[in-house]
């Protein structure tokens, strides 16, 4: 029984493994695949993969879909549209360091919006956990040296990341507080569909006026990987974790994702793991543990 109780807690640490793989895609495909095209085809593929498994149940629940489609479209536009395309757009003109700084602000937006608009309760442990995560991520970003802060420069791409960060916060909170009669995969299938539809006009604009997509083997490899790892797996695990821990605690997974991103950098892009990576990791994991502990004291 105790081992079964650990499964929801492990979700907080397993989910970012898949979500952080988005950074691998963003870095590896930046020069070859247009950003909006990558986001559009990614979510269309997610929809096409899930549809055969959910079509019959969606057909039976058509009346429910009619009742909830506006909310589901909003979730698709936020989670798949803004959060799907904005990071890839940001990668064209800003640094990975800046992306890490700004995207890791999303749990703060989740935390504040939950308190201000949904009266989510918080206590001292959650506050301490939040600050430990911020310090841990900051330590990784500045590479353990305060002098790095003076050399940081912000570009238009940082605005794309800020929009993505706020969009993910709104998506996370809406996903949790907007109750649905649909099962997780049924709603996720529709979120992917509406997400790709919200991206379609911008995809056409990009194709016609900015950069045309080349449908080669590299395109199919990266879009399929984006659809499965940071797409189907990451979003599903995030929804499951939210059901257990709520929006604000689950939002802490983004801090863990920053740690995993550093590990991916070492594994795939020959980036060295330094002592500040390990120190930051310890602080982030401790912060998430305290936030989870705060949830346990409430329940």
How large is the count of helical segments?
13
Number of domains: 1
Report helical residue fraction: over 70%
Strand proportion, as a percent range, falls in under 5%
Number of β-strand runs? 0
Question: What is the rounded distance between the termini?
Answer: 18 Å
Return Rg in Å. 19 Å
Helix/strand-derived class?
mainly alpha
Give the uncertain stretches in residue-range form. Answer: none
Q: Mean pLDDT, as a whole number?
A: 83
| Order of helical and strand elements | HHHHHHHHHHHHH
Biggest β-sheet, characterized? none
Give the oligomeric state: single chain
The gross shape turns out to be globular
Q: Any overview of this molecule?
A:
With 299 residues, this protein is mainly α. It has one domain. Helices cover 81% and strands 0% of the residues. It has 13 helices and no strands. It has helices at 2-19, 21-29, 35-60, 62-90, 96-103, 106-118, 124-141, 156-177, 184-210, 217-245, 247-250, 253-268, 275-298. Helix 7 packs parallel to helix 12 (253-268) and helix 7 (124-141) packs antiparallel against helix 13 (275-298). The relative contact order is 0.21. The mean pLDDT is 83.
